[in-house]
Task: inverse folding
């Protein structure tokens, strides 16, 4: 695995930047319906914050341990998306037709579709974030398995 | 025949697309280094997405986000489509870009696995070592 | 004036792409590819596609460069310098011929920016007119992507998931 960076400046700046990137990623994810942004970009930025932690702070630090736990949830985003579609089926309509979501406080058709779009964007973001982290961990462990199995 | 080709040269976006597409294809097919082929594939994919976005652009139009200033026009379904860029190619493009990066990840994983087994990134060397 | 701006952006784009392909060292080539992605994002914002420019800047200039560099760091330095090779004759003849053919048919494409082109007259005005009433969402691209065409997005999410699983199967089989 990649070792921690030697310079104190780089490590401290990364520790400052990681929460800022996550805050900005949440903003872009939730405001995807009022301006450019949406599920894809929000998900990639969430993944990028943990990738920065893995690459700069080394294999024993908190972001890397968190990332190793996060990649166990690899299919959760797909389940959320398909689950919203299933909820629409349960509500009485076709698959992924958001007008049939049965949620207690939401009355008008356009509010139901708004909520459907928001939930599916969340599912896509989680899926892309976990996949980006998983690919980076796979690619950065090519040295380990080469050395330990020779 | 020549005047058709000269008329085709009047469109700068299309000429840029043709140059990038053919050069990326050339590098992908002829170069022996594996990672260089992947760089050529990346240029090929982005040039096609460039063509898609160019087809959807409109002169003197703004981004396809409905502004609050047109609230009166929106309420009566009177939005003029010529004021906004065409949103359908953008949708296709978003899907294509994300699939492009996923394909790149898998191809690079394949290259890394080949390097672990045969120790080289050069096509001719790998063919020699297989025998 | 604006035509001058467009032409200079396109020329810069081709120069960066040429740099990425002609440089001999692989790591420099990958970094020039990152700057090519950035210029491409500017071109798309100029053409009115802000969502696309956003995704390209984050994914192309960020994630793709990280993937390439991680793979190249696992190799020895002798492999990141490439040698000149002879190219096959067919490529030197066939590809310019293909280029001439493509330019020959370019005349029949609709004029740049016309609102009557076939891509903009069938379903797209309906989406632009009705999306705010139906879904409360000012961003038409998000509404089309996640509501009117949600099935495509579901399958694309499945493709991304499969790519992650494929990488794990290729590279991490030796661990637990």
Result:
């Amino acid at each position: 695995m990649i070792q921690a960076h030697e310079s104190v400046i780089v490590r401290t700046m990364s520790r400052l930047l990681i929460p800022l990137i996550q805050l900005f990623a949440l903003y872009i994810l939730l405001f995807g319906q009022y301006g450019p942004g949406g599920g894809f970009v929000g998900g990639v930025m969430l993944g990028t914050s943990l990738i920065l932690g893995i690459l700069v702070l080394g294999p024993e630090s908190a972001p890397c341990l968190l990332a190793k736990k996060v990649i166990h949830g690899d299919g959760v985003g797909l389940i959320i998306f398909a689950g919203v579609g299933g909820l629409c089926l349960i509500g009485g309509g076709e698959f992924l037709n958001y007008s049939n979501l049965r949620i207690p406080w939401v009355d008008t058709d356009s509010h139901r579709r708004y909520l459907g779009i928001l939930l599916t964007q969340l599912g896509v973001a989680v899926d892309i974030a976990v996949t980006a982290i998983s690919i980076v961990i796979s690619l950065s462990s090519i040295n380990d398995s080469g050395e330990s199995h020779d | 025949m020549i005047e058709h080709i000269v008329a085709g040269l009047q469109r700068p976006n299309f000429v840029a697309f043709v140059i990038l597409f053919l050069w990326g294809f050339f590098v992908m097919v002829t170069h022996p280094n594996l990672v260089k082929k992947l760089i050529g594939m990346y240029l090929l994919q982005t040039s096609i997405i460039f063509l898609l976005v160019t087809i959807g652009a409109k002169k003197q139009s703004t981004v396809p986000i409905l502004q609050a200033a047109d609230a009166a026009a929106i309420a009566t379904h009177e939005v003029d489509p010529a004021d906004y860029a065409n949103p359908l190619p953008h949708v296709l493009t978003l899907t294509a870009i994300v699939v492009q990066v996923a394909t790149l990840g898998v191809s690079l994983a394949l290259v890394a696995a080949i390097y672990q087994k045969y120790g080289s990134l050069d096509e001719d060397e790998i063919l020699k070592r297989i025998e | 004036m604006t035509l001058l701006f467009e032409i200079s952006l396109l020329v810069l784009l081709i120069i960066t792409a040429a740099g990425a392909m002609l440089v001999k060292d692989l790591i420099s080539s990958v970094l020039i590819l990152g700057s090519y992605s950035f210029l491409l994002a500017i071109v798309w914002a100029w053409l009115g596609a802000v969502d696309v420019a956003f995704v390209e800047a984050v994914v192309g200039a960020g994630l793709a460069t990280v993937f390439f560099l991680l793979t190249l760091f696992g190799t020895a330095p002798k492999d990141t310098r490439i040698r000149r090779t002879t190219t096959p004759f067919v490529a030197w003849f066939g590809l310019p011929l293909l280029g001439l053919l493509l330019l020959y048919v370019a005349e029949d494409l609709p004029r740049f920016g016309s609102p009557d082109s076939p891509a903009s007259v069938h379903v797209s005005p309906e989406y632009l007119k009705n999306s705010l009433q139906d879904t409360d969402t000012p961003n038409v691209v998000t509404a089309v992507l996640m509501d009117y065409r949600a099935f495509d997005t579901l399958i694309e999410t499945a493709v991304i998931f499969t790519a992650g699983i494929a990488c794990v199967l290729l590279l991490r089989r030796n661990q637990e």
Notes: Chain C has a mean pLDDT of 84. Residues 115-176 of chain C form one domain. Chain C has seven helices and no strands. Chain C touches chain A through 46 residues (CB under 8 Å).
